[in-house]
């Protein structure tokens, strides 16, 4: 099992789940939501988050056993809720940074 891919995929999936879940959590807690985090606004960070989250979950099984995708999915979904609750409105700034940093790292570990 390749632990580097597992960690990189979990971080990338966490950023995707954060992008998707932020709008609902922010509305429930009366935090501000930028237009890039509204799923109904077309191609946004939130809609890219759906693709990135599930792509990272699927990428985790390239060099790992099949059950690793379940671990990545549940750990990333849990971490996303924890990070949004911790960082609140700053989550909107953290998500793109996490995506930009973790995507090339995951691709490097997969193809290296």
General description of the model:
There is one protein chain. The chain has one domain (3-111). The chain is elongated and about 40 Å long. The protein contains four helices and no strands. The longest helix is centred in the N-terminal third of the chain and has 27 residues, at 3-29. The chain has 112 residues and is mainly α. The protein has helices spanning 3-29, 45-59, 68-87, 91-111. The model has no long low-confidence stretch (mean pLDDT 92).
Could you write a compact summary of the structure shown?
Helices cover 74% and strands 0% of the residues. The chain contains four helices and no strands.
Count the domains. 1
SS element count, helices: 4
Question: How would a textbook summarize the main sheet?
Answer: none
Structure summary, number of beta strands: 0
């Amino acid at each position: 099992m390749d632990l580097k891919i597992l960690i990189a995929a979990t971080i990338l999936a966490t950023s995707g789940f954060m992008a998707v879940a932020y709008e609902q959590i922010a509305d429930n807690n009366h935090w501000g939501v930028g237009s890039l985090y509204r799923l109904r606004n077309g191609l946004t960070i939130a809609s890219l988050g759906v693709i990135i989250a599930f792509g990272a979950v699927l990428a985790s099984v390239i060099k790992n056993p099949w059950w690793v995708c379940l671990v990545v999915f549940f750990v990333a979904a849990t971490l996303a809720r924890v990070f949004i609750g911790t960082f609140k409105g700053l989550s909107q700034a953290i998500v793109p940074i996490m995506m930009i940093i973790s995507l090339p790292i995951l691709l490097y570990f997969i193809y290296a």
